[in-house]
Amino acid sequence: MQQTFKSNKLQFIGTSEHHPDGYRRNFNNVVKDPAPAAVEGFAAALASLTGEQVSDGILTTALDLTLA
To answer: pLDDT averaged over the chain?
Structure first.
């Protein structure tokens, strides 16, 4: 079996004044191997720009598989 990187999706989970029960923000087409510092920096920038609190994140990787 061969694997080929297809895409990454990043989802941030957090709360805000308008969403006290939580919200999810999705970002598609994330680079293949995002550095932890880059993800943390992006979350901090998102929190700074929106005034929301980011508590967690989920990185989902899609691979194309070739079965031979």
So the answer is: 94
